[in-house]
């Protein structure tokens, strides 16, 4: 079996586990899951942003093209973007005014040492959007992005949570598929013992 086929199957299986557990612990949230994206719409994202999406994220869009706004949310964010919104959000970040001082790695090191900013995992603690695809938001204050060009030690396609106001960057998982699997496992633990679970639903907050 090819690596791509494995990713496709793994993503679909992870979503199936997520949906099965949501039906037990948060059934109303299932209404916010959207239909699959068509292949031309996914290809159009790559064309618009002039990049290649990770195979597992493409496979995920073929299961659910983001989520709709509404509560309760089926994911630990307010909203996962659909294909059009991915382009819009990523371009919004790209259009933001760059900060050549803050984007200097020597400045990162100084600020990290002082505790002025926090980075968990191998991620560049910068608001520069290069090599990043923004895929979801929490209240317009916190975002998840796919990091296609991480620093040494990172994995291309890793999922990062950024909170600009709190100046925090957290690598949530080395891939989108691994993030979905982790979320499925968290939901399964919650379903089995809700009173003692430390569900990862808070990971996006």
CATH topology: SMI1/KNR4-like
Structural class: alpha+beta
Strand order of the largest sheet: 1-3-4-5-6-2
Distance between the termini: 37 Å
Largest sheet: 6 strands, mixed
How do the strands and helices of this protein lay out in sequence?
Blueprint: H1 3-25, H2 39-49, H3 55-61, E1 79-80, H4 83-95, H5 105-114, E2 118-120, E3 132-138, E4 142-147, E5 158-163, E6 168-173, H6 176-192
Parallel strand pairs: 2-6
Antiparallel strand pairs: 1-3, 3-4, 4-5, 5-6
Helix pairs in contact: 1-3, 1-6, 2-4
Structure description:
It is a single chain. The chain is globular, with a radius of gyration of 17 Å. It contains six helices and six strands, in the order H-H-H-E-H-H-E-E-E-E-E-H. Helix 1 (3-25) packs across helix 3, helix 1 (3-25) packs parallel to helix 6 (176-192) and helix 2 packs parallel to helix 4. It has a single domain (3-204), classed as SMI1/KNR4-like (3-Layer(aba) Sandwich). A hairpin with a 3-residue loop joins strand 3 (132-138) and strand 4. It has a six-stranded mixed β-sheet with strand order 1-3-4-5-6-2. The chain is of the alpha+beta class and 205 residues long.
């Amino acid at each position: 079996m090819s690596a791509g086929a494995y990713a496709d199957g793994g993503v679909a299986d992870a979503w199936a586990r997520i949906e099965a557990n949501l039906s037990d612990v948060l059934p109303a949230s299932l209404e916010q899951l959207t239909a699959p994206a068509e292949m031309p719409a996914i290809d159009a994202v790559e064309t618009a942003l002039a990049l290649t999406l990770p195979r597992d994220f493409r496979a995920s869009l073929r299961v659910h093209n983001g989520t709709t706004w509404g509560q309760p949310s089926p994911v630990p964010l307010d909203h996962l973007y659909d294909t059009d919104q991915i382009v819009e959000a990523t371009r919004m970040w790209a259009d933001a005014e760059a900060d050549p001082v803050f984007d200097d790695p020597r400045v990162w090191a100084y600020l990290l040492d002082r505790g002025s900013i926090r980075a968990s995992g191998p991620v560049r603690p910068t608001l520069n959007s290069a090599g990043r695809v923004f895929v979801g938001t929490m209240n317009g204050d916190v975002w998840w992005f796919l990091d296609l060009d991480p620093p040494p030690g990172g994995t291309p396609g890793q999922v990062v949570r950024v909170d600009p106001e709190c100046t925090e960057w957290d690598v949530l998982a080395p891939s989108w598929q691994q993030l979905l699997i982790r979320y499925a496992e968290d939901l399964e633990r919650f379903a089995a013992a809700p009173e003692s679970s430390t569900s990862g639903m808070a990971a996006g907050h």
